[in-house]
Design goal:
445 residues; alpha+beta; Chitinase A, domain 3; four-stranded antiparallel sheet; 9 strands; 47% helix; elongated; ribosome binding; rotamase
Length: 445
């Protein structure tokens, strides 16, 4: 088998394959054994006619066609592997030459990952990795958040609502006209147990701050305008009036940061709690510093390397982004259809809006994959096992059971790709080379 590769626009690879005449003849012999079973030849049981008789009645063209199909099926994968082509889309097969006693020639055109050569990157690895040390103020905020998470809610009766309170409202909401009149006597929302955490930012913008100062059992009117981006098109950008009465106020009683709090969280002492919080803070600051450094290096690599992006990979990335958006909207009680309606957009328009970010992400992934080959970074079986182990623990299954699930779903390859991208990203984010002009500041990982 002879293979020739031609790179076409839009990340399409054309692989031309030539099969020797002897191999074609052998394929025709195999083809006869397959095809003869499909035909009834007078005077013979089905599938028992001699080849010469079969060819007299049916013709050799049928055998040639069957032989060609078998040869394509047989050599397709090997041809792509020999040409170092990694397909990402459906192939198109073109028969170039199909004649007796002649080489069989066919061409595969398939969208594929581009051939990328990144080259030396030592100059990029001199980018400093500066990991800031947590300040006392940072640690105080970390501990305050931890203490707040352990707060107990206590009833409040004689004091007005303040920031951080957990409030229950009897609430009716009405749409208003531009003149401030009620547009519809029927409320668009009515809830006797509407719960709000003042300051959380989870309620519609403007509602929480206007609750501050209200007293238990005291009716009040709150006016605001829904944001233009609100998922419900009937409310987006509309002025509304809420008639509310506070029916319950609970205030979090935040415990002091001491030995008792530490022991309730499983630590021996306040000092151990502080040390653990400081370590977590350092880990976050280190992760952020590495992410920032990785972004800088990737930005320079994207300027240095140019190639055609496979449209199929971009479309897949857009689909992932849509799934992420849908998950976020559902947490807010909406969905993609409502989102599109509120923005007066079509699906095609949303796709095109997401395309630039998807293209950047795909370009980064392809560059990182190319770097993995050049740097000889691989995903081992141990890497896969370590990635699967937390999933197995979460679902109380064995690692083998989870692996079999990945294999059945056809997602084990995607898992390995994600792990590879993660390993290369960590290499770029953490590896610091000494500059030839000056020492590199910050910490090396």
């Amino acid at each position: 088998m002879e293979v020739a590769l031609e790179r076409l626009p839009n990340a399409v690879a054309k692989v031309s394959v030539t099969i020797a005449p002897d191999d074609v003849q052998q394929a025709m012999d195999r083809a006869f054994k397959t095809v003869v079973r499909r035909y009834n030849i007078p005077g013979f049981r089905k599938g028992k006619a001699p080849r010469k008789i079969f060819e007299m009645y049916v013709g050799r063209g049928v055998l040639l066609q069957e032989a060609a199909q078998q040869l394509v099926d047989q050599h397709y994968g090997a041809a792509l592997q020999q040409a170092a082509v990694e397909p990402v889309g459906e192939p198109r097969i073109n028969i170039v030459t199909l004649e007796e006693n002649q080489p069989f020639e066919f061409a595969i055109e398939v969208e594929s990952k581009p051939a990328i050569t990144v080259g030396p990157i030592d100059d990029l690895l001199t980018e400093p990795l500066s990991i800031p040390e947590p300040t006392p103020e940072d640690l105080d905020k970390e501990l305050a958040q931890l203490a707040k998470s352990q707060a107990q809610l206590a009833p409040v009766e004689d004091e007005p609502v303040s920031m951080g309170d957990h409030v229950v409202l009897s609430l009716k909401g009405y749409l208003e006209t531009e003149d401030g009149e009620i547009a519809d006597a029927e409320p668009f929302v009515e809830d006797e147990n509407y719960a709000v955490e003042v300051g959380s930012g989870l309620a519609v913008e403007g509602l929480e701050n206007q609750l501050i100062g209200l007293k238990l059992g005291e009716p009040a009117t709150i006016r605001l305008t829904y944001p233009e981006s609100h998922p419900d098109v009937a409310l987006a950008g509309k002025p509304v009036r809420f008639e509310v009465t506070v029916t319950d106020i609970k205030r979090p009683e935040i415990p002091p940061i001491d030995d008792e709090l530490a022991q309730s969280l499983g630590y021996q002492s306040e000092q151990e709690l502080r040390d653990n919080a400081a370590n977590r803070l350092r880990e976050r600051l280190e992760a952020q510093a590495k992410n920032d450094r990785l972004a800088v290096i990737l930005g320079k690599l994207k300027e240095r390397v140019t190639f055609d992006l496979p449209p199929t990979l971009v479309d897949r990335q857009i689909h992932r982004q849509l799934q992420e958006l849908d998950t976020m909207l559902r947490r807010m009680g909406a969905d993609l259809d409502q989102y599109l309606e509120s923005r007066q957009m079509t699906w095609d328009a949303l796709h095109e809006e997401m395309r630039p970010a998807a293209e950047e992400r795909v370009k980064e992934q392809l560059i990182l994959e190319a770097l993995a080959k050049e740097l000889d970074i691989n995903v081992t079986n141990d890497d896969v096992l370590e990635a699967v182990r937390p999933i197995a623990d979460l679902y109380q299954q064995s690692v083998d059971q989870v692996l079999q699930t990945f294999v059945r779903q056809g997602s084990i390859g995607a898992l390995a790709e994600d792990l590879l991208i993660s390993k290369v990203s960590d290499y770029l984010a953490s590896t610091v080379r000494e500059s030839s002009e000056s020492n590199v500041g910050g910490e090396n990982a």
